[in-house]
Amino acid sequence: MTKLTKVSFGKLGAPSGGVAMILAAEGLALGSQTQAFVAGMEGGFERAAKVAGFTGKSGTSLDLIAPAGIPVDRLIVVGLGKAEELTDEAWLKLGGTVQGLLAGAKADKATLLLEITPEEDVSAQACATVAMGAKLRSYSYDAPKAKKADDESPEMIRLELAVANVKDAKKAWAAAEGVADGVCLARDLVNLPPNLLGPVEFAKAASDLTKLGVEVDILTEKEMKKLKMGALLGVAQGAARPPRLAVMRWNGGKKGDAPLAFVGKGVVFDTGGISIKPAAGMEEMRGDMGGAAAVTGLMHAVAARKAKANVVGVIGLVENMPDGNAYRPGDVLTAMSGTTIEVLNTDAEGRLVLADALWYTQDRFKPAFMIDLATLTGAVIVALGHLNAGMYSNNDELAGQLEAAGKATGESLWRLPLSKGYDKLIDTPNADVKNTGGRTAGSVTAAQFLQRFANDVTWAHLDIAGTAFGPPKNEINQSWATGYGVRLLDRLVSEFYER
Ligand code: BES
Ligand code: MN
Ligand code: ZN
């Protein structure tokens, strides 16, 4: 459903015909092939840069139409910034910027000379990261419309990256492309309207991963009743559409190795239930399955790149609706763990879904760790905005690894506290726990609630309410949904858990 850029790799050399793109570091430093190429312009390049005030700063560019002396129709120069500051994230954003410039120029084919300075080649990994940035930027949600808007932009942009080591770059891209596809899958799931993506349709999307070698089981209401998942089923009981629990398994590691488990909140639409939400902005709650989308995208990623790890994804798929049969404030539910939960607000439903999904995951899989993702609270947006996910963990090592993966991918997160004092806020005389902790520290008390269902397994919780959808458009994403979490967790797996 998306119109993507197709990336290929070729040898470094002078491009001819069509659009050529080159990189210039700050101070107008060029790679050797690039230097040789623009030498054909006999000083025209330097003159144009000077007149335009282009110095190679990152985020800037220079567009030269029909440049004299070189055999191309258009030369787009992209600023690299300081060569020594080229992090993974910088390469990713560069790829996005390149794609944005091509789309803006309505070009359907271009060659990018990918080199930094005469002394330094771009690593194969960085080449793949540029390609990923371009692909992520080119993603657009294909909205269901009878009449497509008049759009002169090409169906597909073909971007050739001219690199020092074609073989290694291709190999790195084969893996990275699988991750990019996982991000696009997560974005599609979040962007889809709630009538077209209910629990059953979402479960079908999870089942489609069998094509990549993922084992998928879908639990129906009947099976969840047998397992006594009273918390998840309590949320689901007001909806006409039945719930599902999708279990995805990628067995790329050693047989018998404890799996890495990822658990997602998949509320396909959150009206708030009987504690109904205000009308304004309620349509955003079509994205309340962003955690489940990230887990599904991650399963796609690890399977597509054949990760050498055992990975489990579990997603709780429900709809939260007000109805004559809906659960109410004051109800006491019994979760699969046996814990009783007093419902004080039916809009605090995500934690109920996760309570059973987390308990089930640790009980069935005995994972090495469990990480859940959920668009869980408005409070985390108040605290951190759209720039960081809130991270909670009962384990400093796992928290540190997540922080490192966040830095490397640019999918940022910020650790927030868990403590006995916060945990007390969800005690109640009427049950073992209540589902809200009052007005203060809303994201923290939600995390404390989840911790009670992690059963001392190494665990982290990512509150992605602010990062899954709705942030301003940027270099690598122009759509409402971000796919946040797929690249982050794929990185966590590849950097710390693969052998
Ligand atoms: N899905 C919402 C949280 C949310 C809000 C996600 C905005 C993305 C954007 C969640 O189910 C919810 O309604 N949380 C309540 C909890 C409260 C009732 C304790 C909230 O945050 O207000
Ligand atoms: Mn809610
Ligand atoms: Zn919700």
The CATH first-level class of the largest domain comes to Alpha Beta
**CATH-assigned fold name of the largest domain:** Aminopeptidase
Question: Beta-strand level of the residues, as a percent range?
Answer: 15-25%
Tell me the major beta sheet. Answer: 8 strands, mixed
The helix fraction, in percent, is 25-40%
Cross-sheet strand order for the largest sheet: 7-8-10-9-13-17-14-15
Bound molecules: ligand BES, manganese (II) ion, zinc ion
Poorly predicted regions are: none
Number of helices: 15
Layout of SSEs?
Blueprint: E1 6-11, E2 19-25, H1 32-39, H2 44-52, E3 61-65, E4 74-81, H3 88-104, E5 109-113, H4 124-138, E6 158-163, H5 166-191, H6 199-207, E7 215-219, H7 221-226, H8 230-236, E8 244-251, E9 260-270, H9 290-304, E10 310-320, E11 332-334, E12 340-342, H10 350-365, E13 369-374, H11 378-384, E14 389-393, H12 396-409, E15 413-415, H13 420-424, E16 433-434, H14 442-451, E17 459-463, H15 486-496
Parallel strand pairs: 1-6, 2-4, 2-5, 5-6, 9-10, 9-13, 12-16, 13-17, 14-15
Antiparallel strand pairs: 3-4, 7-8, 8-10, 11-12, 14-17
Helix pairs in contact: 3-4, 4-5, 5-9, 8-10, 9-15, 10-14, 12-15
Bound molecules: ligand BES, manganese (II) ion and zinc ion (ZN).
3D structure, described in words:
With 499 residues, the chain is α/β, with parallel strands linked by helices. The chain has two domains: 6-145 and 155-165, Leucine Aminopeptidase, subunit E, domain 1 (3-Layer(aba) Sandwich), CATH 3.40.220.10; 179-496, Zn peptidases (Aminopeptidase). The protein contains 15 helices and 17 strands. It has helices at 32-39, 44-52, 88-104, 124-138, 166-191, 199-207, 221-226, 230-236, 290-304, 350-365, 378-384, 396-409, 420-424, 442-451, 486-496; strands at 6-11, 19-25, 61-65, 74-81, 109-113, 158-163, 215-219, 244-251, 260-270, 310-320, 332-334, 340-342, 369-374, 389-393, 413-415, 433-434, 459-463. The strands form three sheets. Strands 7-8-10-9-13-17-14-15 form an eight-stranded mixed sheet, sandwiched between helices. The chain has a six-stranded mixed sheet with strand order 1-6-5-2-4-3, sandwiched between helices. Strand 3 (61-65) and strand 4 form a beta hairpin. The longest helix has 26 residues, at 166-191. The model has no long low-confidence stretch (mean pLDDT 97). Residues 270, 272, 347, 349 line the site of manganese (II) ion.
